[in-house]
Amino acid sequence: MLENFRNHIDLHFPHLKEGKFLLACSGGVDSVVLAHLSASYELDFSIAHCNFKLRGAESDKDEELVRKLAIHLGKEIFVTSFDTQGYMAQHKTNLQIAARELRYNWFSQIMTTHHIKTLVTAHHADDSLETFLINLSRGTGIEGLTGIPSLTDTISRPLLQFSRTEIKTYAEANAIYWREDASNENTKYLRNNIRHNIIPKLKELNPNFLENFLKTQEYLGQTQEISNQHIVQLRKQLFSKEGKVEKVKATSLLALKPTKAYLFHFFREYGFTQWDDIYGLLSANSGKEVHSNTHRLLKDRDFLLLKPIALKNSGVFNIEEGQEAVSEPISLKFNIVEAIKETSSNIIYVDKETLKYPLTVRKCQKGDYFYPLGMSGKKKISKYFKDEKMDIFAKENQWLLCSGDNTVWIIGKRADDRYKITDRTKEILKIILE
Predict the structure, then answer these.
(1) How does pLDDT run across 393-417, given as a tens digit for each residue?
(2) What residues contact residue 129 under an 8 Å CB cut-off, 6+ apart?
(3) Does 232 show up as a binding residue in the annotation?
(4) Strands 399-403, 289-291: parallel, antiparallel or unpaired by DSSP?
(5) Can you list the positions of beta strands (E) in 202-316?
(6) Is 28 annotated as a binding residue?
(7) Nearest Cα to Cα of residue 401 among 310, 330, 343, 322
(8) 101-124, pLDDT tens digit by residue?
(9) Is there a binding annotation on residue 287?
(10) How far is the C-alpha of 25 from the C-alpha of 191, rounded, in Å?
(11) Is 316 flagged in the annotation as binding?
């Protein structure tokens, strides 16, 4: 196995030979063997062990074994312990999720502090098969059937081509001591049930089942890669971006078949799961939205607009007389000038004597109106937004500069005629949006 491991590292994980990595070690046979194999190949690594304090003295004995292993191999070790039960209660989650979040958050902290780029874990072929069957039982797409990835940006899993039997055989042949976690025998957990009751039956049906499964996963991974490349190219064609907002024509999405499958691939990375609702957006009226935890997807006229969810800033910000600049909620500068010079949508000139201080910067409110510069009569700001074909996101983000209850400037767009420079103006105030 050692020779196969070395060849596997050379071919698929050469980066592990180029710098120090962090090896997660529980004390079980898989991670202990991984540590021995890595040390035998003279790879540079540190060991990290989590004590979840779930099995009393048994958890402490796991920690003791890993500490002795680090000394034996001459490796730096990081150890921590968690109040796992308290974390579960606080975050209202189950044991598996709690343990995963705790350990990976801690691993990330170590890697950041010590400038380590890669975490190495001891997942093996049987783990991948178990994950496949779990996902299959719950319903999944091709991503769930490709198993555990061998490589991500920060995690490497060099044992995925090896079976649990191979790993245990290597440990026994080399007199490697490890700890057995009794909870791994408890079949009340779905993974353990699959491990002890289902996979052995599959291997009885075909002694080469695991080997054939790994080949199938390789083919599925290749198919997924082709699919991902197609989605990336199609996304470049259909989506456009304006600031933080992504925009796609609803009819373009409806033309793709099967539509819901394309919607899944386009929007799943933003946390959406409501595929029927998103499909409904394509033919919905303007203003209808679907939310994930992180993003909003909005129907606006003929388009879907995608935008990260941001904290709403609906406050009122005061600007005192004589103040030359503000940075919140937007950046504005105020200068007294002798005459009107350069002009743009981000610059206005107003008669300072017509202003009532403090000026305010705020969002549009129901009933707001202004007198558009150069026009006679007033206009509701909501009507101005509509005439300008501003989408809902743009309306929500638009700030007004006000004097008392009056609008001085729809900032960056249109000034109010009541504050323009005239023959009677004594002091010209130049206002710049930066």
Answers:
(1) 888 889 999 999 999 999 999 999 9
(2) 147, 199, 210, 213
(3) no
(4) unpaired
(5) 240-242, 245-249, 289-291, 295-300, 303-308
(6) yes
(7) 330
(8) 999 999 999 999 999 999 999 999
(9) no
(10) 20
(11) no
